[in-house]
Design brief:
- The structure is a single chain.
- The chain is α/β, with parallel strands linked by helices and about 325 residues long.
- It has helices at about 10-20, 35-40, 50-55, 65-75, 80-85, 100-110, 125-130, 140-155, 165-195, 200-205, 210, 220-225, 235-250, 255-270, 285-290, 300-310; strands at about 1-5, 25-30, 45, 60, 90, 115, 120, 135, 155-160.
- Helix 9 (about 165-195) crosses helix 13 (about 235-250).
- It is elongated and about 65 Å long.
Amino acid sequence: MKVGFIGLGTMGGGMALNIRKGGYDMVVHDINRDAAKRHIDAGCTWADSPKELGAQCDVVFTSLPGPPEVEAVATGPNGLIEGMKLGSVWFDMSTNSPTVMRRLNATFAAKGIDVLDTPVSGGPAGANSGKLAIWAGGNRETFDQQKELLDCMGDQVAYIGAIGAGSVAKLVHNCAGYAVQTALAEVFTMGVKAGVPPLPLWEAIRQGAGGRRRTFDGLAGAFMANQFEPASFQLKLAHKDVRLATELAKEMGVPMRLSNMALEELTEAMNRGWATKDSRVAMVLQKERAGVQIEVPADELAEAVKRADAGSPQA
């Protein structure tokens, strides 16, 4: 089997080398030929265009900046679609639009080419070391057939669902991270302006309940199970805590946009009569606004938490 890789930048460069280390015959391409020097030194072959690369390969990977670049490589002049063979497979590892990937999947399927979206998480260090999460959307059978290739690049390779599902998971992950980053900047500046030196403040909050918990652990339990009684921490107590924090921010003259929005959410939930329910019941408000129902059976949720705690990807 011959493998192609397009996009040898900060992320793709390391991932492509890890496939090569797995012993695969490889063809590479990048808009900047100099980016391929270490890959050619490692025994990879250069292709002058996506079309040329696609014509030589059974499986193609792309790692590109975003949707415009992916579409250009896929369907632009000398694009992949002009070269790839019937029965070949294309994995896009870019952080991409699920809508774009669904459209490209339909276009390539008409020519007998299978497309999966497989974005990654782990940063440049993970791309070089092979310690990446890879989230796949597309044909499950194709995913299973090619999983060994994905395992060359990541230690947490998981099938998420139909085409576009991998991209959805990546966008949820990244957007949440930057929202949390914004909230952390907000509350931390308040704490420092209130008189606590940065290092002791960081050391203290890092050992609190929120600091010890992984970012997405708060979704498990009450929210995903849709069970808010008995309360682990009552809504009225959470409301009091956030109110005190925003009052302190006002005293210190620190803007707290996100924190005040959180207080408004908790206040609305209080006005629903949920004061003694688990504080996560305020998240129900967003479920209502989004028009979605989320209620995972307790046994399935417990099994998923067990897998996550063991560090295993989804089966």
